[in-house]
DNA sequence: GGAAGTAAGTTCAATCTGTTTACTTATTCG
DNA sequence: CGAATAAGTAAACAGATTGAACTTACTTCC
């Protein structure tokens, strides 16, 4: 037999059925209120197939029936919605300065949040603390009568495609950590999907996946915080993430923006992070790592030095966004991370630069929408929860209901 | 009914059968010489299913049986190969200085080539000439007794996801051209798959798709010629290309490498193309657009000015490759385009820079393989042919054989 | 040389899936 | 109120994969 080669996807009748159940579920998720007839035309299935599939999804607690639609000359259809009261998803983010927890309904609605200041420490200690927090978290009343579909954890570092091991997280000082294996002993009773991902990639995924109606073809999330990273999600079918072999895709902080510029902690010169990042701003303005950057900076926004530093950082961000536009060409760019709270002194130069230069290659025809999230505290954690939902819907057998449902 | 939303993929039994036929065909394609039993374990299908599917692929002329395998204690398996004598693929490239034609067997083997000098002219004139060339080309004896699966055309410009219209090709001076519609009247008898794509993306696809054995997870093709562009192909299942909404993904020529640098023809300053591209080298060294760059430069390789220019361009290319490594993180980088013929004076600085800086973020553990193609004349055209094959195998019903076959 | 063992490939009834066709239900329009 | 229209359901049908039994073909061992 010849050497190793990848599996090709093939399937049996069971696979086909699960595929169709997933497709129906995704259709309802993306367009709440569709009827069985709508689904049949959308998904290219017959009414009969859709009918039986929907019935089984109703029994499993994934869907619920809604109001009768307006009739257009015949029997009115029955609206279908995700059953937001039966399952929930857990998302967490391990950040440099704290742990963040989120519980989401399948629609993406946030049910519970928790933001716990927590210092950088070892993987084991962090896993123990996060496990304890999650255990308490799941006892909150709004989650008591729901079933968990799984747990997703977002981390500030590079994760290879298999998603099992965190290769490097320079800002945490970690490398080669199998974080989910460390977490599991602390949550022995938890079942369902377990996964981890880079924080910017998780955020990108969530921003694309938890959206109804017309979804953009692709979405780039740029996370500007202590470091700077990005994630690209593509939404043709189920959202896919561009990861790169070593999980390095989107490590835009270390692209060279200024040949021969300042030395970066990575050893190269002129990296984007030397111009725009939490640590470079701190270094320039002499702000200690332990202090909150925004709090220390807010009273100093009149100082010429601060204004100048923020403007230069903003312009560099604009240039970075333009380069990303040209290399990735996403349909939509979302800017988040703690630095967005620095306000217009930082953001305006970035937006202005990007606006002024983005259409040079294509004329004025189309522009890319660029959205800034002011408070992105829970965006990555919610994105990790979104990944759990996607995995539950697509990759594995749909779980049976255990809590009573209609 | 709620607003527009995308189709979700669902399917019937026919879809499942085609999926399995495709999976089997891909398995044989990637690992020539597999037996039915190998396929069954690889593709997770039963021997019975594989047996009938293989029989139908043999009848259709896609596969042929080979020698008996060595026995390992039982009945030996019968090797299966792609039938390279039944179908062929046509690929063409419209370049700034000429038209290139390729005919490939399903294995990727090049059957015929043709390189025709052709000046930049209007889309209509080009389509007429290409059509005539293709017609003559298909009458060559090696193609006489084969069936064509379709035609793919590679072009130096941006093409949006639907692939139907060439948005902009600055080096040709074209914009918003439906090239395949212009070509069709000149080849009325041609059937099968018709497609066009950007030349770097087509090349990336071909380099990944026409490979047997262990294929890299992703491959980035960088095309350095008159302009500079790139294409990223990912090979988890069928190779997918990163295109971007406006087809701008991979337009690396216009990423800013040197803030405040020279003005680029796109209107911005310090674009990569101002440092490394056919036109910037011509401008710096005063070489006319109509002359062949390599021919004019070869006798001048001793001049300090030439040496300096090529070294600077090479260094910029190295920096660009590093930035691509960080934003895309492909498993393999392939460097092609006419500038690779400039030799070590240009290439060495690029490779040296890339080698020296690539592992700063991940330690010395893994390195990305970087391969240079010296003669990339037919790479893009062959890539377009590869796309035709992929489309024929995956997207549509497998055609019936018309020429007699075993 | 022959019998036993092992593995590849085939045959065919059984099972499971989506489809087709006919039917029931529920609303609008005249 | 009846005809028309459209949503949803039920039962027979068509088809693809499966599983078990079978045939084929080679190796190994006595």
From TrEMBL, chains A, B:
Pfam family, one: ROK
PANTHER family referenced in this protein's UniProt entry, alphabetically: BIFUNCTIONAL UDP-N-ACETYLGLUCOSAMINE 2-EPIMERASE_N-ACETYLMANNOSAMINE KINASE, ROK (REPRESSOR, ORF, KINASE) FAMILY
Protein name according to UniProt: ROK family transcriptional regulator
Family statement: Belongs to the ROK (NagC/XylR) family.
């Amino acid at each position: 037999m010849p050497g190793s080669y990848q599996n090709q996807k093939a399937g049996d009748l069971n696979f086909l059925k699960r595929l169709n159940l997933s497709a129906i579920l995704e259709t309802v998720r993306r367009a709440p209120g569709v009827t069985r007839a709508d689904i049949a035309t959308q998904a290219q299935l017959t009414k009969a197939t859709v009918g039986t599939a929907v019935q089984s999804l109703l029994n499993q607690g994934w869907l619920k029936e809604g109001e009768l639609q307006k009739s257009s000359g015949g029997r009115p259809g029955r609206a279908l919605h995700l059953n937001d009261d039966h399952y929930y998803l857990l998302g967490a983010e391990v950040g440099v300065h704290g742990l963040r927890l989120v519980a989401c309904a399948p629609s993406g609605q946030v049910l519970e949040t928790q933001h716990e200041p927590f210092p950088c420490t070892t993987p084991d200690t962090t896993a123990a603390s996060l496990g304890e927090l999650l255990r308490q978290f799941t006892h909150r009343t709004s989650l008591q009568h729901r079933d968990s579909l799984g747990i997703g954890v977002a981390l500030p570092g590079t994760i290879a495609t298999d998603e099992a091991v965190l290769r490097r997280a320079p800002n945490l000082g970690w490398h080669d950590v199998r974080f989910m294996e460390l977490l599991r002993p602390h949550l022995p009773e938890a079942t369902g999907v377990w996964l981890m991902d880079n924080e910017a990639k998780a955020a990108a995924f969530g921003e694309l996946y938890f959206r109804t109606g017309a979804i953009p073809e692709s979405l780039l999330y740029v996370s500007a915080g202590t470091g700077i990273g990005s994630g690209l999600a593509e939404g043709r079918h189920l959202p896919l993430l561009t990861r790169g072999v070593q999980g390095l895709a989107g490590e835009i902080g270390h692209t060279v923006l200024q040949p021969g510029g300042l030395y970066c902690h990575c050893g190269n010169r002129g990296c984007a992070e030397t111009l725009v990042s939490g640590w470079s701003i701190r270094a320039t303005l002499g702000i200690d790592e332990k202090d909150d950057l925004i709090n220390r900076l807010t009273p100093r926004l009149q100082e010429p030095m601060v204004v100048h530093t923020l403007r230069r950082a903003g312009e560099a961000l604009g240039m970075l966004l333009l380069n990303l536009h040209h290399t990735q060409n996403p349909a939509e760019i979302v800017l988040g991370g703690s630095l967005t709270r620095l306000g217009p002194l930082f953001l305006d130069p970035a937006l202005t630069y990007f606006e002024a230069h983005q259409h040079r290659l294509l004329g004025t025809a189309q522009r890319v929408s660029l959205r800034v999230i002011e408070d992105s505290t829970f965006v990555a954690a919610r994105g990790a929860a979104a990944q759990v939902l996607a995995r539950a819907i697509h990759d594995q057998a749909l779980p049976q209901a255990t809590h009573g449902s209609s």
